[in-house]
Amino acid sequence: MRGLLSLPFRRLLLAGLLAVSGAAVYGYAAANTVPASRAGDGSAAVSGYTITNVHYNLDAVNPQQLSSITFTISPAVPSGGTVRVSTDGGVTWTAPCSTGTSITCTSTAAVSSILGLRVVAAQ
Fold first, then answer.
1. What confidence score (pLDDT) does residue 8 get?
2. d(CA 2, CA 41)
3. Closest Cα partner for 121 from 73, 62, 63, 87?
4. Which pLDDT does position 102 carry in this prediction?
5. For burial by CB atoms within 10 Å, which of 87, 91, 93, 106 has the most?
6. What are the pLDDT digits (tens) for 52-73?
7. What do you get for the CA distance between the two ends of the chain, in Å?
8. Does residue 71 contact residue 79 with C-beta atoms inside 8 Å?
């Protein structure tokens, strides 16, 4: 006899240990619970704003510079919303403007640098 345990018995013991550990791991994993949750995807139309009555207000001391831009927006932007404008094609933006329907944005842009008016508004 070579050893106390013969080779077939060792294999049987190893197989038994693997089965017991596999069952324990499966039991542990099966004990995990995940709360019910939801996920979704969808789409809807995004409507825009209408901008009218745009006024570029010149600085009282230096008329080559703006002091503000005012305009009417419809529908009204609620108090928690954001309005910003750019006069250089979106390179720079004003600080947040007022909300409501009569919007005032502070701007110190040079009159000669105005390329147009770009308005971004969100509720």
1. 72
2. 68
3. 73
4. 97
5. 87
6. 999 999 999 999 999 999 999 9
7. 86
8. no
Bond into 96 cis (ω within 30): no
Q: What are the residue ranges spanned by the domains of the chain?
A: 1-32, 50-122
SS3 per residue for the chain: CCCCCCHHHHHHHHHHHHHHHHHHHHHHHHCCCCCCCCCCCCCCCCCCCEEEEEEEEECCCCCCEEEEEEEEEEEEECCCCEEEEECCCCCCCCCCCCCEEEEEEECCCEHHHCCCCEEEEEC
- What integer pLDDT is reported at residue 2 of this predicted model? 56
Ranges in the chain, pLDDT < 50: none
Q: How far apart are CA 71 and CA 61, in angstroms?
A: 22
